[in-house]
Amino acid sequence: MKSSNKIARSNDLPALAGDVLPPQIPFRDAEIIRLAEIINSQTSTIRFQDIKIQALVQEVAYLRRIRYGVKSEAMSAEQRQLFDEDIVQDIAAVESELKLPAKPATPRSRAGRQALPEHLERVEVRHEPESCTCPACQSNLVKIGEDVSEQLDVEPARFFVIRHIRPQYACRQCETITAAPVAPAVIDGSLAAPGLLAWVAIGKYLDHLPLYRLEQIAARQQVNLSRSTMSEWIGRMGFALQPLADRLMELLKQRQVLHADETPVKQLDPGAGKTKRAYLWSYRSNDMDTGPPIVVFDYQASRSGQHVRDFLQGWRGSLMVDDYGGYKKLFAHDAIHVVTELGCWAHARRKFFDLQVTGAHPMAEEALRRIGQLYAIEEEARAMDNASRAMHRQENSLPVLADMHDWLIRLRTSTANNSGLARAIDYSLGRWASLIRYAQTGNLPIDNNPVENAIRPIAIGKKNWLFTGSERAGKRAAAIQSLFATAKLNGIEPAAWLKDTLEKLPVWTMRHIDELLPIKPIAQSPSVS
Questions:
Q1: What is the 3-state secondary structure (H, E, C) of 44-109?
Q2: Dist. CA 184–CA 119, nearest whole Å
Q3: What crossing angle do the helices spanning 471-489 and 227-252 adopt, rounded to 10°?
Q4: 359: left (phi over 0), alpha (psi -120 to 50) or beta
Q5: What does the domain layout of the chain look like in residue ranges?
Q6: Tens digit of pLDDT for each residue in 301-345?
Q7: Interatomic CA distance for residues 268 and 277, integer angstroms
Q8: Closest CA to 481 of 462, 507, 502
């Protein structure tokens, strides 16, 4: 019975052969084909995007590996900074293409974004909702709090004109005219206010921008600042600021421990139509002193040791230097110079590092490990006072040094002469007395890195300056750089300091010149009479 019903129902269906299909079936088949084509197209797109994403992810991994990997000392610090900047930019660009969340450049000790500096001006922008009634029931909204977020913004150099208006008053009876006097200025009759003078000096000596670039920046705001005019301003500013640089030198030479180093710069030689080599000598105070940090640059035409002897004429103390022979006569302890030599462990370490970086060298690696112990001991004593540091060094550094000295002597006897390892060992043993001197006290530095860090911006600047035009220009640059570098060491914003100083300088007395210096207040400091 059931089977007969099935046959009956089947007879109601159209025949498969020779009969016409219902009209909806062809349209359904076409839709299936269209959807299949879409699926195939999207599958190909997804496959292509997967390949692209995989390639980009691999690129990010590669960039991060070279960004955070071990860096070679063969690259200068400035080269590494430029390299790091480009790598960080590449990573950000690839992550943007991948639409990945940005990762912090360095590991952070706490979660969240760092707060913006408190001293910056806050410009409030309030964002109120379009309506103060509830969109659901039309009741009035009640404020229960507010969400505050901050963004950092900047306003480019803004030029404006200061109009000095001095009303003139006449006395009819005396037939005289009275008006407020014109305030003295660093450059009498100049159109440049102190703020503009400071902007030019900061751009040239701190931001390392040649004057023609400052000229272009001003031109974008339709302000004509010719290079010749700005050059004249720089010359007059340098003359006005020279007494401050001279006073810094006097205060520096009152310290008992100093760092010294020198770096070559190019000076134009008009007669020969090319440049010649000059030198910028750098002197820095010791960070373990109680006084404010000071840096002084001295521009000289050569690398002769006579220049450092002239600079330190009559000075007595301990001087941290490298092994350059120009310093050697200072340590003769004659009637004129009584200077004690301090050896730099960073230079000694560099000799062994050069061996290690060119290939695995077990003896160089062991030397680096031992020197690393000395620096680890210094890190532990960073926050100690001089007395505690002296005791800490006596208990920890001196035993390490004694053991290292014995090890170096034994190693030298089995090392071939004129080899790289022999030269590294001879450098340390030849300067051993000066290298261990720091560990016998609590106030002497272990290396010359502070002055090398102070001189590093000069290496960036001279690539932009290309050369100094004359010896006088070099000395002027050294004086201004001394003031800026000292300000930075003391946590003083150089542009604000210079603007304030240029305003005060025309009426300031030499007796109170210390109050204008870019250093922290000095207690009981002798002043120039």
A1: HHHHHHHHHHHHHHHHHHHHHHHHHCCCCCCCCHHHHHHHHHHHHHHHHHHHHHHCCCCCCCCCCC
A2: 31
A3: 60
A4: left
A5: 192-342+449-529, 344-447
A6: 999 999 999 999 989 999 999 989 889 888 876 545 589 999 999
A7: 9
A8: 462
Which tens digits make up the pLDDT trace of 211-262?
899 999 999 999 999 998 999 999 999 999 999 999 999 999 999 999 999 9
Does residue 143 sit in helix, strand or coil?
Answer: coil
Which residues on adjacent β-strands are paired with residue 339? 317
With 0-12 / 13-18 / 19 or more C-beta atoms within 10 angstroms meaning exposed / middle / buried, residue 511 is exposed
CA-based end-to-end distance of the chain: 132
Place of tokens 């230079």: 347
CA distance 123 to 99: 31
Look-up: residue for tokens 């690839």? 94
Name the 3-class secondary structure at 223.
coil
User: Which position has the token pair 């909204």?
Assistant: 141
Q: How far is CA 41 from the centre of its chain?
A: 52
The encoded tokens of residue 179 equal 């008006």
Question: Tokens representing 267?
Answer: 């000076």
Place of tokens 């991994």: 61
CB under 8 Å to 276, separation ≥6 — which residues?
A: 266, 267, 269
Among all chains, which residue has been given the structure tokens 């806050």? 122
The residue type of 172 is R
User: Whose structure tokens read 């051993």?
Assistant: 432
